[in-house]
Amino acid sequence: MNYNLDQNAAKQADNINARIEQKGRYLGMITRAESITSKTGAQGVDISFKSDNGESADYLTLWTHNKDGKQLMGFNMLMAIMTCLRVKSLNAEAGEIEKYNSDTKKKEKVTANLYKELMNKKITFLMYMEEYAKIAGGTAWKPVIFAVCDKDGFTASEIFAKATSANTVEKMIAALKDRPLKIATIAPRQESENPGNGFDDDFNF
C-alpha cells in the first residue's frame, strides 16, 4: 500500500491526550455518564467526553434537580442528549471507570453508578470555554456544553420534527462565545435553580 502525507491526520496524532481548550463543534463519545449528588442535595449527571480527534473533557456536569426535586437547567440538556442518542430512559447501574484522584495525582479505577445507555455512542457537542475562580486562588478555564446534536448534526427539535436536513447547528456554532469571569461572580458557584421545561413524553424516534 502507498501513502501520501495527510497533514490533518498528522496533527490529530498530537491530540491523543489533549484537553478541549477552545470553543467549537466536537464529534465523539461520552466515555463516562455518572449519577452524582452535590453537597446541597442536588442531583445530576457528570460527563466525560472524548472527541474523534482525541481531545477530551471531564466534569461536564449537568445539574438536573435540586434537593427538593425541582428541575434545574441541566435537565433540558440531559433530555437533548437522550434524544440525540435515541435513548428513552436512563437507569443507573454500577460499573467500573477511571477517575482522577487529586491525592495521588493520577487516574484510578473506581466503581460508580453509571448511565451506560449514554456511553460509547456517537454524539456532537458544541462547547464554549468558561473562566472560573479556583479554590486555591487565581482562575482557570473549563469547557462547558452549549448545545448538543446527533452524529449527523441534527438537534433534538429537528429529530422530533423528523427534519430531513440539519439547519440549526451552524447557527448555534455562530452563537458560541467564551465567557470570561466577572468580578461579581467570583463567589463559589451554586447549582442553578432555574426550572427546565423538559421534553414531551412522546419520543417519536
Task: Write a structural description.
The chain has 205 residues and is mainly beta. The protein has one domain. The protein is 14% helix and 36% strand. It contains four helices and seven strands. The strands form two sheets. Strands 3-2-1-6-7 form a five-stranded antiparallel sheet. The chain has a two-stranded antiparallel sheet with strand order 4-5. β1 and β2 form a beta hairpin. The termini are far apart. 25% of the residues are buried. The C terminus is likely disordered.
Please outline what is shown here:
This protein is mainly beta. The protein has helices spanning 7-12, 74-84, 156-160, 169-174; strands at 24-37, 43-51, 56-65, 93-101, 106-114, 122-133, 139-149. The protein is globular, with a radius of gyration of 18 Å.
Q: Which keywords apply here?
A:
205 residues; mainly beta; 5-stranded antiparallel β-sheet; two-stranded antiparallel sheet; 4 helices; 7 strands; globular; disordered C terminus
